[in-house]
Design brief:
This protein is an alpha/beta fold and about 220 residues long. It has eight helices and seven strands; from the N terminus they run H-E-H-E-H-E-H-E-E-H-H-E-H-E-H. Bound molecules: magnesium ion and zinc ion.
Protein backbone atom coordinates (compact mmCIF):
# COMPACT_ATOMS: atom_id res chain seq x y z
CA UNK A 1 0.00 0.00 0.00
CA UNK A 2 2.69 2.49 1.03
CA UNK A 3 4.82 1.61 -1.98
CA UNK A 4 1.87 2.40 -4.25
CA UNK A 5 1.46 5.88 -2.75
CA UNK A 6 5.15 6.72 -3.08
CA UNK A 7 5.15 5.57 -6.70
CA UNK A 8 2.18 7.82 -7.46
CA UNK A 9 3.88 10.87 -5.96
CA UNK A 10 7.03 10.24 -7.97
CA UNK A 11 5.04 9.68 -11.17
CA UNK A 12 3.18 12.96 -10.65
CA UNK A 13 6.51 14.65 -10.07
CA UNK A 14 7.98 13.24 -13.28
CA UNK A 15 4.99 14.59 -15.21
CA UNK A 16 5.45 18.07 -13.73
CA UNK A 17 9.19 17.90 -14.51
CA UNK A 18 8.34 17.10 -18.12
CA UNK A 19 6.08 20.17 -18.24
CA UNK A 20 8.91 22.30 -16.85
CA UNK A 21 11.28 21.06 -19.58
CA UNK A 22 8.72 22.02 -22.25
CA UNK A 23 8.27 25.43 -20.62
CA UNK A 24 12.03 26.07 -20.46
CA UNK A 25 12.52 24.96 -24.06
CA UNK A 26 9.80 27.34 -25.27
CA UNK A 27 11.42 30.22 -23.42
CA UNK A 28 14.96 29.26 -24.49
CA UNK A 29 15.98 29.03 -20.87
CA UNK A 30 18.20 26.59 -19.06
CA UNK A 31 17.92 25.56 -15.43
CA UNK A 32 20.61 24.14 -13.16
CA UNK A 33 19.73 22.31 -9.96
CA UNK A 34 22.28 22.69 -7.16
CA UNK A 35 22.10 20.02 -4.47
CA UNK A 36 24.23 19.24 -1.42
CA UNK A 37 24.20 18.56 2.30
CA UNK A 38 23.47 21.63 4.45
CA UNK A 39 26.54 23.84 4.70
CA UNK A 40 28.49 22.51 1.69
CA UNK A 41 28.55 26.02 0.24
CA UNK A 42 25.74 26.28 -2.33
CA UNK A 43 24.83 29.89 -1.55
CA UNK A 44 28.48 30.93 -1.12
CA UNK A 45 29.19 29.49 -4.56
CA UNK A 46 26.20 31.29 -6.12
CA UNK A 47 27.39 34.57 -4.57
CA UNK A 48 30.69 34.15 -6.43
CA UNK A 49 29.39 32.52 -9.61
CA UNK A 50 26.56 34.91 -10.47
CA UNK A 51 28.66 38.10 -10.91
CA UNK A 52 30.88 36.19 -13.38
CA UNK A 53 27.85 34.91 -15.32
CA UNK A 54 26.52 38.48 -15.46
CA UNK A 55 29.86 39.59 -16.93
CA UNK A 56 29.33 36.96 -19.63
CA UNK A 57 26.05 38.83 -20.33
CA UNK A 58 23.80 36.01 -19.19
CA UNK A 59 20.50 37.04 -17.66
CA UNK A 60 20.31 35.07 -14.42
CA UNK A 61 17.40 34.25 -12.13
CA UNK A 62 17.53 32.24 -8.91
CA UNK A 63 15.04 30.01 -7.15
CA UNK A 64 15.90 29.42 -3.52
CA UNK A 65 14.49 26.38 -1.75
CA UNK A 66 14.41 26.18 2.02
CA UNK A 67 12.08 24.74 4.60
CA UNK A 68 11.77 28.13 6.24
CA UNK A 69 13.51 31.57 6.22
CA UNK A 70 14.69 33.78 3.37
CA UNK A 71 18.32 33.82 4.62
CA UNK A 72 19.82 32.62 1.32
CA UNK A 73 17.61 34.82 -0.87
CA UNK A 74 18.60 37.81 1.31
CA UNK A 75 22.29 37.04 0.74
CA UNK A 76 21.77 37.21 -3.03
CA UNK A 77 19.82 40.48 -2.93
CA UNK A 78 22.90 42.70 -3.42
CA UNK A 79 23.48 41.03 -6.82
CA UNK A 80 20.38 42.79 -8.15
CA UNK A 81 18.95 39.75 -9.95
CA UNK A 82 15.43 38.30 -9.67
CA UNK A 83 15.20 35.78 -6.82
CA UNK A 84 12.18 33.72 -5.87
CA UNK A 85 12.04 31.97 -2.52
CA UNK A 86 10.20 28.69 -2.03
CA UNK A 87 9.55 27.88 1.63
CA UNK A 88 8.44 24.28 1.77
CA UNK A 89 6.85 24.76 5.21
CA UNK A 90 3.78 25.92 3.26
CA UNK A 91 3.76 22.57 1.41
CA UNK A 92 4.15 20.30 4.43
CA UNK A 93 7.76 21.21 5.28
CA UNK A 94 9.32 18.98 2.64
CA UNK A 95 13.09 18.53 2.87
CA UNK A 96 13.35 18.70 -0.96
CA UNK A 97 11.86 20.64 -3.85
CA UNK A 98 9.19 19.01 -5.99
CA UNK A 99 8.67 19.85 -9.66
CA UNK A 100 5.27 21.34 -8.83
CA UNK A 101 6.68 23.87 -6.38
CA UNK A 102 9.48 24.71 -8.84
CA UNK A 103 6.90 25.27 -11.60
CA UNK A 104 5.05 27.68 -9.31
CA UNK A 105 8.27 29.62 -8.74
CA UNK A 106 9.07 29.69 -12.47
CA UNK A 107 5.76 31.45 -13.10
CA UNK A 108 7.11 34.39 -11.07
CA UNK A 109 9.68 34.84 -13.86
CA UNK A 110 6.99 34.82 -16.57
CA UNK A 111 7.54 38.42 -17.68
CA UNK A 112 11.31 38.56 -17.20
CA UNK A 113 13.78 37.71 -19.97
CA UNK A 114 16.20 35.19 -18.50
CA UNK A 115 18.79 32.89 -20.09
CA UNK A 116 19.52 30.77 -17.09
CA UNK A 117 17.82 29.85 -13.84
CA UNK A 118 19.85 28.61 -10.90
CA UNK A 119 17.88 26.47 -8.49
CA UNK A 120 19.27 26.04 -4.98
CA UNK A 121 17.61 22.94 -3.62
CA UNK A 122 17.00 22.25 0.08
CA UNK A 123 20.23 21.15 1.80
CA UNK A 124 19.90 17.38 2.04
CA UNK A 125 21.78 14.50 0.40
CA UNK A 126 18.79 12.13 0.35
CA UNK A 127 15.41 12.96 -1.18
CA UNK A 128 16.25 15.94 -3.43
CA UNK A 129 17.88 13.26 -5.61
CA UNK A 130 14.55 11.41 -5.90
CA UNK A 131 12.56 14.35 -7.24
CA UNK A 132 13.34 15.50 -10.78
CA UNK A 133 13.09 19.30 -10.87
CA UNK A 134 12.98 19.54 -14.67
CA UNK A 135 16.49 21.03 -14.68
CA UNK A 136 18.95 20.49 -17.54
CA UNK A 137 21.91 19.90 -15.27
CA UNK A 138 22.30 18.54 -11.74
CA UNK A 139 25.31 19.87 -9.88
CA UNK A 140 26.16 18.38 -6.48
CA UNK A 141 28.45 20.25 -4.11
CA UNK A 142 30.46 18.18 -1.65
CA UNK A 143 32.84 19.84 0.76
CA UNK A 144 36.17 18.44 1.94
CA UNK A 145 34.89 18.74 5.53
CA UNK A 146 32.16 16.12 5.07
CA UNK A 147 34.27 12.95 4.90
CA UNK A 148 35.39 10.92 1.89
CA UNK A 149 32.63 8.30 2.19
CA UNK A 150 29.62 10.39 1.16
CA UNK A 151 29.14 8.98 -2.39
CA UNK A 152 29.13 5.47 -0.92
CA UNK A 153 26.56 6.41 1.73
CA UNK A 154 24.31 8.51 -0.53
CA UNK A 155 24.80 6.88 -3.95
CA UNK A 156 21.57 8.12 -5.57
CA UNK A 157 22.57 11.76 -5.12
CA UNK A 158 25.89 11.16 -6.85
CA UNK A 159 24.30 9.00 -9.56
CA UNK A 160 21.83 11.79 -10.39
CA UNK A 161 24.64 14.35 -10.54
CA UNK A 162 26.12 15.41 -13.87
CA UNK A 163 28.85 17.44 -12.21
CA UNK A 164 30.29 17.35 -8.70
CA UNK A 165 32.03 20.34 -7.18
CA UNK A 166 34.43 19.43 -4.40
CA UNK A 167 34.12 22.59 -2.31
CA UNK A 168 36.18 24.35 0.37
CA UNK A 169 39.44 22.91 -1.02
CA UNK A 170 41.23 25.75 0.84
CA UNK A 171 40.50 23.69 3.99
CA UNK A 172 41.86 20.39 2.70
CA UNK A 173 45.07 20.48 4.77
CA UNK A 174 43.34 21.70 7.92
CA UNK A 175 40.83 18.83 7.86
CA UNK A 176 43.31 16.30 6.35
CA UNK A 177 40.92 15.53 3.50
CA UNK A 178 41.99 12.78 1.11
CA UNK A 179 40.88 14.31 -2.18
CA UNK A 180 42.28 11.40 -4.18
CA UNK A 181 39.98 9.06 -2.22
CA UNK A 182 37.07 11.46 -2.82
CA UNK A 183 37.66 11.11 -6.58
CA UNK A 184 37.91 7.30 -6.28
CA UNK A 185 34.62 7.07 -4.40
CA UNK A 186 32.90 9.36 -6.87
CA UNK A 187 34.13 7.29 -9.83
CA UNK A 188 32.97 4.09 -8.13
CA UNK A 189 29.40 5.41 -7.92
CA UNK A 190 29.29 7.37 -11.20
CA UNK A 191 32.15 6.94 -13.70
CA UNK A 192 30.76 9.58 -16.09
CA UNK A 193 30.82 12.46 -13.57
CA UNK A 194 32.55 15.72 -14.36
CA UNK A 195 34.46 16.69 -11.23
CA UNK A 196 35.79 20.13 -10.27
CA UNK A 197 37.58 21.44 -7.21
CA UNK A 198 36.56 24.90 -6.04
CA UNK A 199 36.93 27.34 -3.20
CA UNK A 200 34.41 30.15 -2.92
CA UNK A 201 36.59 31.70 -0.23
CA UNK A 202 39.71 32.04 -2.40
CA UNK A 203 37.81 32.11 -5.75
CA UNK A 204 39.73 29.02 -6.86
CA UNK A 205 38.20 27.76 -10.16
CA UNK A 206 35.13 30.04 -9.91
CA UNK A 207 35.96 31.59 -13.29
CA UNK A 208 36.54 28.14 -14.79
CA UNK A 209 33.17 26.91 -13.55
CA UNK A 210 31.41 29.99 -14.92
CA UNK A 211 33.06 29.37 -18.28
CA UNK A 212 31.95 25.71 -18.24
CA UNK A 213 28.39 26.80 -17.53
CA UNK A 214 28.51 29.37 -20.33
CA UNK A 215 29.91 26.71 -22.68
CA UNK A 216 27.05 24.29 -22.00
CA UNK A 217 24.59 27.00 -23.03
MG1 LIG B 1 22.17 27.90 1.01
ZN1 LIG C 1 12.66 15.38 1.35
Amino acid sequence: MEIKIVRKILEANDFAALKIREHLREKHQRMINFMSAPGAGKTAFLEKLIPVLLKHELKVGVIEGDITTTCDADRLKPLGIPVVQINTEFFGGDCHLTANTVFGALKEFEDIRLNIILLENVGNLVCPAEFDTGSDLNIVLWSVTEGEDKPLKYPLMFQKANWVLITKVDLQDAVKADIKLMYENLRKINPSLKIFEISSKTNFNIGKLAQEIVNTN
